[in-house]
Amino acid sequence: MNKRLWILLMCAVVVQATNMKLNTPVGISDETYVLAAMDAQVRQKHDVASQYFKYLYEKTGQKEYLYDSLRMYESIKDSSLFSNAIDEALSDNPKDKILLRFQLISLLKEGKYAEASHEGLLLSRETKESPDYLLRAEALLKLGNYQSGYSELKKAYEISYDEETADRMALLMYTQLGQKQEAISFLKDHISAHGNSKVIGKRLGSLYADSGALEDAAEIYEATYELTNDPLIAQEAVKVYAYQRELQKLRILLEKSEVNDPMLLDLYVREKEFKKASVLARKLYKRDANPLYLAQSSVFEYEAATDHNDAQLLKQVIDGLKQANEEIDDPVYLNYLGYLMIDHDLGVDEGMQYVQKALDKHPDSPFYLDSLAWGKYKLGECAEALRLIKQVESIIGADEQEVKEHLKAIKNCKTKEKK
Question: 130 in helix, strand or coil?
Fold first, then answer.
C-alpha cells in the first residue's frame, strides 16, 4: 500500500477526546504520521493533528513534537483541553520554558490575566527572553496597566528590535500614554536604525495623518510603497495628496503605482492632456469592458488630434462612439457623435438622429440645441436653424466661441435664403 493511501486511511480516524488512542498501524514511518498531522491541520481537525504529534513525541521523545501537539490545541475553542494538555506535559517537564510559555498563553486564553502577569514575571526574570516579556505585556495590557505593559514591550524590543513590537509600542504611546510626539519620534528612530517596513511605514503614516502632519504622512506612505510595492499603502498616499490638492504629486504617484486609473484619467482631462487620457481610457476599456471608457477614449482621441479633418481619425472616432452608444445611450456622447458627423459632413441626417436622441433625454440643453441648429444649417433649413440658435443665445448668451461662430454663420445663411 502506498504512502498516500496510508495517509488517507489514517486521516479518516476521528479523535473524539484527548485521551482516545489513535489507530497506529505497525510499519508506518514517522514522516507519514507528520504528513497525516499536517493534513488534519489543513482540514481544521486540530484535535486529530494534536494526537498525531503527541504520538510521535511518545514514540521518539523529540520535544518539538510535544510543542506541535500543544500548538494544535491552542487553536481549539475548548480552552480546557489546551490547559489540561499543558498540565500533563508540565508534570513531566516542570522547568521547560517552552511549556511554561504555553501555560502563559493558556492563562491568557482563559482570561486569567493577573495570574498570567504573575507567572510571566517569574518566567521573564528567569529567562530574560523576548517572548516572555511579550506574554507578560499582553497580560498587563489586558489588565489596563498600560505603563507597565509598555515597559515589558520595551524590554522585548531592546532584545530583538522586532517591527511588530515597535508598532505596538508606538500605538500604545500615542493612544494610551499621551506621548504622541514621542511615538512618532520613536518610529522615525526605528527606521533610521533598522530600516523601514510595511508595518512601520503604515503606522508612522497613520500617526502623522492623525496629528495633522499630512505632508509627512504622504511622504512616508510613498516611501513605504516604493519599498514594498504594496498598492494599499500607495492608496493611503493618494488619499492625502487628493485631500491636499497636491495634483502634481498625485499624478506622479498614480502613474507610478496604477492604483487608481479612473482618478488619473480625471487628472489628465482636467489638465487637458487628451492624448494620455485617450490611451488610458482605452486601457480601462480593454480591462473592464465598460463602453463608457470606449466613448471617452474616442472623444479624447479627437480632442488630442492636431488635424481634426484627418479621414482615418474621424472614422476611428466615429466608429468608437457608435459602438459605445449602442450600450450606454448617454446623451453627452450621443450629442458629441451627432455633432461630429454634422460638422464634418459625414452623414448629417444620421448625425441629427443622434442629436435628437440626446434632446429626447434633455430637451432644454443649450448644447444639444446648438448641435441641432448646426444640423439644420447644414441641411439648408436656415429659418429653423436661426430659431434654434436664438433659443441657445437666450439661455447661455453668445459669449461661447462656438455659439458665436454658429450664430454668425446661420445669420448669413438666413440672409442668403431671403435673396
Answer: helix
Helices (H) and strands (E) in the chain, counts: 24, 0
d(CA 128, CA 123): 8
- The CATH number for 337's domain is 1.25.40.10
Query: Which triple of cell numbers denotes residue 32?
Result: 507519514
* CA nearest neighbour of 260 among 285, 246, 239, 243: 239
Distances (CA, A) of 79 to 73, 107, 234, 329, 393: 8, 9, 41, 62, 80
pLDDT of res. 285: 98
Number of Cα atoms under 13 Å in the Cβ half of residue 2? 2
Q: Residue 350 corresponds to which cell in the numbers above?
A: 444620421
pLDDT along the chain (419 residues), means of 10: 45 42 60 74 78 79 84 82 88 92 95 98 97 98 98 98 98 98 99 98 99 98 98 98 97 98 98 98 98 98 98 98 96 98 97 98 96 96 94 88 91 61
Number of domains in the chain: 1
Residues 398-418 pLDDT 10s: 788 888 899 999 998 854 444
Mark residue 45 as left, alpha or beta (left: phi above 0; alpha: psi -120 to 50; beta: remaining).
beta
Residue type, 86: I
In a domain, 144, yes or no: no
**Residue 344 belongs to some domain of the structure:** yes
- What pLDDT score was predicted for residue 52? 78
Query: Phi, psi at residue 61, to the nearest 5°?
Result: 80, 5
Structural domain range at position 359: 329-419
| Residue 399 belongs to a domain | yes
pTM of the predicted model as reported, rounded to 2 decimal places: 0.81
Flag whether 290 is in a domain: no
C-alpha–C-alpha distance, residues 283 and 273, integer Å: 16
- What secondary structure does DSSP assign to 273-293, as a single string? -HHHHHHHHHHHHHHH--HHH
What does residue 273 show for φ and ψ, rounded to 5 degrees?
Answer: -90, 75
Residues 143 and 117: their CA atoms lie apart, in Å, by 9
